[in-house]
Amino acid sequence: MTNMTYMSLLNYAVAAEQTIEVFDVTAAFVQSSLDIDERHVVILPANVVPFILEIAPEYQSYIQNVGTILLELEKSLYGLPEAGRVWFEHYARILMDLGYERSDYDKCCYKKRIDESLILVGTNVDDNILIYDDKSKWMRDELYQTLDKNNINYRHNILTRSNPIQYLQTTIVMLLDGSIILHQAPKIQKMFEDKDILIHLKERPNPTPIIPIRRDDDNKPCDKKKYFSYLMTLYHIAHKYRYDLLNACSMLSCIPNPTIQDWNNLLYLYGYVKGTIRYVLHIDPKGIENTINISADSAYGIHTNDLHNSHTGYLIYYGFSQIHAKSLNQSTVCDSSSYAELMAMHSSIEPGMFIKGIYEFIGLNNVRIVIHQDNTQSIRTTYDTTSANHKYLKKN
Q1: Disulfide check for 321: which of 70, 285, 295, 299 has CB 3.0–4.6 Å away?
Q2: What residue ranges define each of the domains in the chain, with the CATH number in brackets?
Q3: pTM, two decimal places
């Protein structure tokens, strides 16, 4: 399940006042059978064999000359290349046999509707999220009973005002008004504790995610591998729910050969994160809507390291809640700010259509997309695509 699907489901659940429940399958990969038309053989190394013999002495007769044992697998096993696919197909068959439909936009998003009862299932390998209400609770019970019959073990947890839940390393908390917040404070705190260079890092003031820090050795190259490793750690957090970090992370990732100046900027960003560990993403769409809003913008010619490429940023939200955000270097060099703004709008269309597809799959009718833009020329261009005089559009 993509993060866009996940956020779309959460927004719908809050807007429609649905129950949010998560469950994870224990040892999912070993609970699915392998293809009967293929043989899957593994070699137990000689240093492992003594431990196997303690458990099953009868395997003594299967030891080869080099001290190893060959085993043919009947069930999937972690580390097997096809293990993920086999589990996905096994679980999908269970859902489809129960009458669930699968989204054409996200193959890990399912629904089952009977009359006024609707349940939604989003799956990420062995982690699942369920969205349902009192009328469809029987479908949730039906799913669990089917898993029990298939000897599939699982653990589940329901979000309530007094019971936060964990999903994909993110804490979900329900507030008194029924809205929810997402945060990764424990994960971020552990990150600062595990990395020696970050333990004594000074907290930076809000609201300045990144500013230049000048020193005499600014232009000397830094450890490139270390730089991008630390940057990608922050990028992962930013992509999930800390959209305030996205632009800084994106700009720092556009540097092919980072210098000490860039490393200092990255540490400054870490300092900002350290001072804002308790920042959360608030999901409160204020009711069901059939409109997806997109705010798109660009920074013209800002990338001097390239060919003065422009930079795109957009935010997609449902009601008053964010669903998806992106900040990226434009691949095409634009010769004006209006052209760059059109490129930014164009980049936001595909994810906007994806989210529209998810909501229509859920059952919302006539979902429309509204793009908000502040460049007069680009707005005029999008409204008048028939003119032969456009600088940015060629008429075929």
Answers
A1: 285
A2: 3-31+81-179 (3.30.70.270), 185-275 (no CATH), 285-383 (no CATH)
A3: 0.84
